[in-house]
Amino acid sequence: xxxxxxxxxxxxxxxxxxxxxxxxxxxxxxxxxxxxxxxxxxxxxxxxxxxxxxxxxxxxxxxxxxxxxxxxxxxxxxxxxxxxxxxxxxxxxxxxxxxxxxxxxxxxxxxxxxxxxxxxxxxxxxxxxxxxxxxxxxxxxxxxxxxxxxxxxxxxxxxxxxxxxxxxxxxxxxxxxxxxxxxxxxxxxxxxxxxxxxxxxxxxxxxxxxxxxxxxxxxxxxxxxxxxxxxxxxxxxxxxxxxxxxxxxxxxxxxxxxxxxxxxxxxxxxxxxxxxxxxxxxxxxxxxxxxxxxxxxxxxxxxxxxxxxxxxxxxxxxxxxxxxxxxxxxxxxxxxxxxxxxxxxxxxxxxxxxxxxxxxxxxxxxxxxxxxxxxxxxxxxxxxxxxxxxxxxxxxxxxxxxxxxxxxxxxxxxxxxxxxxxxxxxxxxxxxxxxxxxxxxxxxx
Amino acid sequence: xxxxxxxxxxxxxxxxxxxxxxxxxxxxxxxxxxxxxxxxxxxxxxxxxxxxxxxxxxxxxxxxxxxxxxxxxxxxxxxxxxxxxxxxxxxxxxxxxxxxxxxxxxxxxxxxxxxxxxxxxxxxxxxxxxxxxxxxxxxxxxxxxxxxxxxxxxxxxxxxxxxxxxxxxxxxxxxxxxxxxxxxxxxxxxxxxxxxxxxxxxxxxxxxxxxxxxxxxxxxxxxxxxxxxxxxxxxxxxxxxxxxxxxxxxxxxxxxxxxxxxxxxxxxxxxxxxxxxxxxxxxxxxxxxxxxxxxxxxxxxxxxxxxxxxxxxxxxxxxxxx
Lengths: 445, 322
Prior knowledge:
heterodimer; A: alpha+beta; 5-stranded mixed sheet; disordered N terminus; B: mainly alpha; 2 strands
């Protein structure tokens, strides 16, 4: 074999690698589009050309794995109204979503539409949406402010959703009636002592019914209980007699069998199931769990989650499914069209089909979302307690981790609540300082 | 001198055109592999070394920080660093010898001439081919402190307050070591191969000389098996330094948590490195941790090689000794 012949294969391989390398890592234009260009109103020449010409476009759409309720309805409805746009759904496990998304963004091959958060917004990886929404006549002023906060950075809105999620306390009204216990207020949160007393009254060990199930306090107590308003300090928040008492009371509920152990039941995963099976009288969980509760025919009511002591400010946590368009998208116009649809027609459809609370509180009133349901009417009251959010970078993965571990140790009686919180405070502050340092060291792009 | 002259002459001779063509063709055929190694192995290794001197969170350009990442590890600024070192060392010190002894014991049993032995060997080897993630999920259920089968058995045996295993800072690491015993069949197969390579005439000769089973094991089996023992020890140590998948799954159970078990009880070095990169977005720091691991693991292996050379016996064929 002659050298020229022998060299063809490796040269070809090298050539392919070079070409692939040159193609990867950037969008087709070779640079990230400016926000103005990216958020150009639909119908502009650049954005409307592919669909107006009737050429089919496929959008890569990344969702959390297991969203079997909404995503099939959503994709079918959108594709029916936009026949030239196909949605290619990729399900990614929630625990790996951030890692995979960041890797895809850095590799220059992000999805067209996906769930994004502030670090990506700050790095300039998402397209501002306000112009698109404005052009579609959407007024975000009546959307939940906490949800808007989570999607906003430096005055730009980067994500929208189709519903409003919230942490709430569900209770089974039939169980309350059977015990002759009055329902909790929808507008004034109980203290943890009142909550515990109520749970004890409702517990029926002989019948296998727990009074309540609730996760680690960090999952449902308001952020203002842990952080100063700027989110940069826990001084005077964590290591206090009030917080120690809260941890003691909640741990005691698990120790005495009023609540199931968290190793048996995770309120976020199975709490709603047990509530639907009438094994639990109260559960603090995601309001979206309502769908399965209603399917099971449970008579329910809803109240704000407890606060450490009576008179503490109520704080109902809220969120949405934060869809965002990536600057690396090859079909930004179509992706923006999908996100716009999500915030308008999609929101209405979701409310109609699944009964979820819409993103726009005006839409809830206009569509008579609550109808004759006393529980939903209660929710409208509860939801008024959702104030502004406190932003803490890397809160769930890093800042809260010491407290997660600490609660487990208190439940196991290997440490007292006061001792755990005294030990945890400097660690949490250390992690908080590191998270803020990392956040502050990056510049807004 | 004559030799030198001859070699000088040889060196001065230019290869023929045909030989050069053949050499070039050889390199051409090798080039896909060479390019692959350069791009996907050497490149990332060099890149990680450079990254270890930077601060990089993927989304922004890396910024040069010099040796700050290395200094941070030892300064105590990373409160999980020494915890992860401690967890990994405790695991290596307890688990590696335990698996070595258990694997050898199992291999000795599997070396017996019994009916159905092939079936036993297959059954005992099966767990070691299972995915670590699947094994972790299985054992997370078994070790559940309230509803797991293991504590059910302990309660039935009269232990009213059994360990909380993976939910306990004290018992999490022992639980993981116990889980590792599940895969000891992998090591025992290597021991079994070593046992079957021992010349039976050695045992016959020892028996004729009156050696009992213990003496035969001590003076024949162990010395003849010493190269295998060294191999299993080294791979076990490397495995301990790289322990990740089971700790990742077991340390991430439930909502939230530090991602390394209760109070960092399962925060193995590699898991801490992964969390530093992918959870905290500190890829420069994670790269520095990776390089420290390479250096420390290399030193440990060097020490094992140096000290083992006096105890490892390699059988020599007298006829080939020259």
